[in-house]
């Protein structure tokens, strides 16, 4: 069986970290005879520079045909002044919406070796294993109308629309309830139902789903409290389900509980389980080109790809075990460095994972 993997390195540290994940994928491809074929395409700022669009037709066509996609990151100061429709981030959002990748899984797992790198005290985070299920193709990111308009008094007004249909809420809800059922039967839905009508509906639909999932205990929390609880007592959470923007923010927050945003992988899936896999972080312009970025979130995203889109559990487990092994060896990129550990570069970290494989 042959499977096509599309690599989209993107911008900033994207090419550096995707190169390491590609080498890891190539190694498990050989070791487990996975029949993976790799192809590359442009997205984001790299695509803007070459083709004047952040999502070229050719990239979208390749993405539609791929069995799975691995993306680095997009964006950077070079393109920040462009109008919204032309920005690198539109390339990423265009991929997500064109492929209907509505279900974004962001696991925040603390590797025990990184307990001292976490922003929280070891006893508060030890054993942390949370899954954030973020709706990815709706909400305020995509709602219409949007823009900047001129008011009669001469002032300009910027506006966006936060909208969800019942069916959009139901389908992400089902993904979250299924995940909760397979884990510990606990789901917390995060909203702002004390203020926003759209999330009153969100809450109603989530409640409704409990009839399909009587074995899952559903709770609700306002997003401001959830942000606080995540740093107060994160282990109260198991699966969190939330909308696009709240999920974006809460997942960056959760990343710091695991030591670094450089540790947080993600899967973005559609209803056919076709998926795009990417680290939760961005293009990190402040460290791009220095060879010091942490490639583990991308390598762990590759493991998620093997598990969710390709059904290669054994290869996925092997990558995760290799990551754990290099952490055991005390190797750390700068973002997770702590006393008594050894600082390594992006490439050295990739090499170490390869060696462990
Ligand atoms: N999925 C994506 O492609 C994605 C995600 C987030 C942000 N972005 C874009 O990236 C650009 C920069 O955004 P930002 O600075 O707000 O967020 P960022 O995630 O790029 O960086 C935030 C901080 O985390 C650090 N960091 C991120 N990844 C790291 C890694 N692998 N190893 C070590 N340190 C790491 C950075 O050095 C920086 O200090 C923007 O253009 C933004 O739109 C893209
Ligand atoms: C770059 C940006 C569009 C993106 C998002 O907000 O979804 C990023 O922050 C992420 O978390 O994947
Ligand atoms: Mg984000």
Q: Helical amount among residues, as a percent range?
A: 40-55%
Tally of contiguous helical segments: 12
Major sheet: order of its strands? 2-1-3-12-11-4-5-10-8-9
The number of strands is: 14
Dominant shape: globular
Percent of residues in β-strands: 15-25%
Backbone CA Rg? 20 Å
In the CATH scheme, what's the topology name of the largest domain?
Isopropylmalate Dehydrogenase
CATH architecture annotation name of the largest domain: 3-Layer(aba) Sandwich
Q: How many domain regions?
A: 2
What is the H level of CATH, i.e. the homologous superfamily of the largest domain? Isopropylmalate Dehydrogenase
Instruction: Please trace the helix and strand order, writing H or E for each element.
Output: EHEHHEHEHEEEHEHEHEHEEHHEEH
Class from secondary-structure proportions: alpha/beta
Low-confidence runs: none
What kind of sheet is the major sheet?
10 strands, mixed
What does this protein look like?
The chain is an alpha/beta fold. The protein has two domains: 1-102 and 270-357, Isopropylmalate Dehydrogenase; 103-263, Isopropylmalate Dehydrogenase. The protein has helices at 14-32, 45-51, 57-65, 88-98, 122-125, 166-182, 197-209, 223-232, 244-257, 296-308, 313-328, 346-356; strands at residues 3-10, 36-40, 68-73, 103-109, 129-135, 143-150, 156-161, 186-191, 217-222, 239-242, 267-269, 275-277, 331-332, 342-343. The strands form three sheets. Strands 2-1-3-12-11-4-5-10-8-9 form a ten-stranded mixed β-sheet, sandwiched between helices. Strand 6 (143-150) and strand 7 form a beta hairpin. Helix 1 (14-32) crosses helix 10 (296-308) and helix 11 crosses helix 12. Nicotinamide-adenine-dinucleotide is lined by residues 13, 17, 73-76, 89, 92, 261-262, 278, 281-287, 293-294, 297, 335.
């Amino acid at each position: 069986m042959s499977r096509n993997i599309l690599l989209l390195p993107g911008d900033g540290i994207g090419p550096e970290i995707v190169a390491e994940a590609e080498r890891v994928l190539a190694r498990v491809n050989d070791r487990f005879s996975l029949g993976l074929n790799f192809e590359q395409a442009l997205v984001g700022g790299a695509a803007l520079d070459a083709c004047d669009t952040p999502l070229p037709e050719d990239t979208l066509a390749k993405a539609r045909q791929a069995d799975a996609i691995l993306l680095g990151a997009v964006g950077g100061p070079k393109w920040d002044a462009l109008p919204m429709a032309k920005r690198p981030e539109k390339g990423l959002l265009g991929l997500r919406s064109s492929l209907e990748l509505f279900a974004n899984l962001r696991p925040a797992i603390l590797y025990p070796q990184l307990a001292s790198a976490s922003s929280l005290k070891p006893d508060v985070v030890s054993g942390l294993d949370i899954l954030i299920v973020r709706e990815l193709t709706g909400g305020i990111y995509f709602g219409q109308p949007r823009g900047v308009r001129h008011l009669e008094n001469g002032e300009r007004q910027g506006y966006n629309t936060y909208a969800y249909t019942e069916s959009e809420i139901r389908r992400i809800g089902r993904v979250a309830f299924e995940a909760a059922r397979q884990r510990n039967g606990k789901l917390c839905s995060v909203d702002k139902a004390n203020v926003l009508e759209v999330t009153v509906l969100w809450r109603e639909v989530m409640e409704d789903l409990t009839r399909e999932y009587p074995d899952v205990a559903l709770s609700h929390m306002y997003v401001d409290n959830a942000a606080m609880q995540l740093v107060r007592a994160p282990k109260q959470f198991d699966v969190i389900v939330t909308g696009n923007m709240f999920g974006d923010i809460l997942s960056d927050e959760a990343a710091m509980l695991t030591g670094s945003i450089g540790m947080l992988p993600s899967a973005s899936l559609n209803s056919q389980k076709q998926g795009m896999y990417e680290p939760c972080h961005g293009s990190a312009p402040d460290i791009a080109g220095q060879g010091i970025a942490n490639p583990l979130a991308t390598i762990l995203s590759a493991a998620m790809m093997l598990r969710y889109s390709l059904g290669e559990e054994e290869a996925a487990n092997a990558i995760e075990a290799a990551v754990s092994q290099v952490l055991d060896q005390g190797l750390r990129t700068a973002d997770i460095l702590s006393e008594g550990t050894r600082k390594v570069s992006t490439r050295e970290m990739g090499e170490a994972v390869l060696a462990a494989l």
